[in-house]
Amino acid sequence: MDVIKYATSALIFYLITSTVNALELGESVPPIIGKTLQGDLVRIQAASGSPVVLNFFWVDCKPCVKELPLLSELEREFPQVEFYAIHVEDVSHQAIEAFINQLPAAPNRIIAASPVLKEQLNITGLPYTLLLSSEGEVINTFVGYHEAEGVAPLRQALSGLQ
Questions:
Q1: What is the rounded CA–CA span in Å between residue 57 and residue 160?
Q2: Is residue 112 classed as helix, strand or coil in its secondary structure?
Q3: pLDDT digit string, tens, across residues 80-139
Q4: pTM of the model
Q5: Are 65 and 126 in contact (CB under 8 A)?
Q6: In a designed cystine with 142, which of 91, 113, 129, 149 is the match (CB 3.0 to 4.6 A)?
Q7: Quick check: helix, strand or coil at residue 59?
Q8: What Rg, from alpha-carbon coordinates, does the chain have?
Q9: How far apart are CA 70 and CA 64, in angstroms?
Q10: Where do the domains of the chain lie, and which CATH numbers do they carry?
Q11: Which tens digits make up the pLDDT trace of 67-77?
Q12: Residue from 152, 150, 158 nearest 67 by CA
């Protein structure tokens, strides 16, 4: 029993001490591991040689319903940028797929990741979007969805990359 108690304490200590504080500009994002909706394992390596947009969402997030179709528009507008929509809550792939299918549009790369990722990246609200340089460093962060602005701040930041 003491072994289980020790292992549990060690795991909690690891999770607390390995948690990244809020990502700051210029910081690198660690590789993100998840699964596609088809069940294929995927590893997102932010330093891909192209700018990257990582959008974190949840199927019960009302603002995400508005934001994801707009991100799809940006994906078409900025084809040199890699877009990923990453689900970070514990639900089935079928629930995520049903959510995506009811939207008018969504980014092409939908990934289901562990809820632990939300803690590791210190994501405190959804939707949460990171804009990364081609070297994988944080250029900008966007928390929440603001009805009046939509994705205009992200569009402006992406325009500045060209």
A1: 25
A2: strand
A3: 999 999 999 999 999 999 999 999 999 999 999 999 999 999 998 999 999 999 999 999
A4: 0.84
A5: no
A6: 129
A7: coil
A8: 16
A9: 10
A10: 2-159 (3.40.30.10)
A11: 999 999 999 99
A12: 150
